[in-house]
């Protein structure tokens, strides 16, 4: 966008907070390589050290945007590590060989739709994570920031059918045994299928359950 701004910030609590504090407008983005209080989906902590955190302000949140962004970001990162497969763990965490490499957080705050992306680039913050460097990529954090911003604008352009189709090609959960928290209950079983915008079908020892996407989350790692 011709009038959009990209602000590079030395240190922030989170780029989501910074976007609000700096009064970023539609089309603007902010980038930081050092978050002191970054967070992911459902309030999980996310550390940007050795990686990049990006927040882009978009005009409207659609129901399929998280799915679309997972697909476009995975495609961008896979171009950096073509010998690997970047998969999607429902709904929108990105994994390589069972380890998390990137995550997405979308929030609506003070009249803004904030799309946050975090990518591990040069180091892995925890043992269950990986980074682009470990996966064989020689790439700078600034280039990855550009790719993350581009993936957001690519996602905004995707229709729901295309987004779901691209997402399903990278799904890593169907056919695996998982523990899923849905509302106040937790279930364990085999993931039979996923409609990423709507529900997950789980076969437990007692029943086949249809768990709504809005209130369900995976609580185990592979």
Short structural description:
Helices cover 22% and strands 33% of the residues. The protein has 222 residues and is of the alpha+beta class.
What features would you describe in this structure?
Helix 2 runs antiparallel to helix 3 (141-157) and helix 2 packs across helix 4. This protein has helices at 15-21, 65-80, 141-157, 160-168; strands spanning 6-9, 29-32, 51-58, 87-89, 93-96, 99-109, 112-120, 177-182, 185-195, 199-203, 208-212, 216-218. The protein has two domains: 6-168, BirA Bifunctional Protein, domain 2 (2-Layer Sandwich), CATH 3.30.930.10; 177-218, SH3 type barrels. It is built from four helices and twelve strands. The protein is an alpha+beta fold.
Write the layout of secondary structure elements.
Elements lengths: L5 E4 L5 H7 L7 E4 L18 E8 L6 H16 L6 E3 L3 E4 L2 E11 L2 E9 L20 H17 L2 H9 L8 E6 L2 E11 L3 E5 L4 E5 L3 E3 L4
Helix pairs in contact: 2-3, 2-4
Attribute tags:
alpha+beta; BirA Bifunctional Protein, domain 2; 2 domains; five-stranded antiparallel β-sheet; 22% helix; 33% strand
Superfamily at the CATH H level of the largest domain?
Bira Bifunctional Protein, Domain 2
- Count the helices. How many? 4
Number of domains: 2
**Which consecutive residue ranges, at least 5 long each, have pLDDT under 50?**
none
Largest pleated sheet? 7 strands, mixed
**What proportion of the residues form beta strands (DSSP E)?**
25-35%
Largest sheet, order of strands side by side? Answer: 1-2-3-7-6-5-4
* Assembly category: single chain
Shape: globular
Order of SSEs: EHEEHEEEEHHEEEEE
CATH topology description of the largest domain: BirA Bifunctional Protein, domain 2
Mean pLDDT: 92
Q: What structural class do you assign from the helix and strand content?
A: alpha+beta
Q: Can you count the beta strands?
A: 12
Gross CATH architecture of the largest domain: 2-Layer Sandwich
């Amino acid at each position: 966008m011709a009038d959009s701004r990209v602000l590079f910030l030395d240190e922030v609590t989170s780029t989501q907070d910074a976007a609000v504090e700096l009064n970023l407008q539609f089309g603007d983005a902010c980038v930081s390589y050092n978050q002191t209080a970054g967070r992911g989906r459902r309030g999980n902590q996310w550390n940007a050290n050795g990686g990049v955190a990006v927040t882009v302000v978009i005009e409207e949140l659609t129901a399929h945007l998280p799915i679309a962004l997972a697909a476009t970001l995975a495609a961008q990162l896979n171009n950096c590590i073509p010998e690997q497969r970047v998969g999607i763990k429902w709904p929108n965490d990105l994994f390589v060989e069972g380890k998390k490499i990137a995550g997405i957080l979308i929030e609506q705050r003070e009249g803004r739709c904030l799309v946050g992306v975090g990518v591990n680039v040069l180091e892995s913050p925890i043992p269950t994570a990986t980074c682009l460097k470990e996966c064989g990529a020689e790439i700078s954090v600034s280039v990855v920031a550009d790719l993350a911003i581009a993936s957001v604008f690519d996602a905004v352009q995707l229709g729901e059918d295309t987004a779901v189709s691209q997402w399903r090609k990278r799904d890593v959960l169907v056919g695996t045994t998982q523990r899923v928290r849905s509302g106040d209950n937790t279930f364990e079983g085999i993931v039979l299928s996923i409609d990423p915008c709507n529900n997950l079908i789980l076969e437990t020892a007692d029943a086949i359950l249809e768990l709504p996407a809005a209130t369900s989350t995976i609580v185990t790692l592979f």
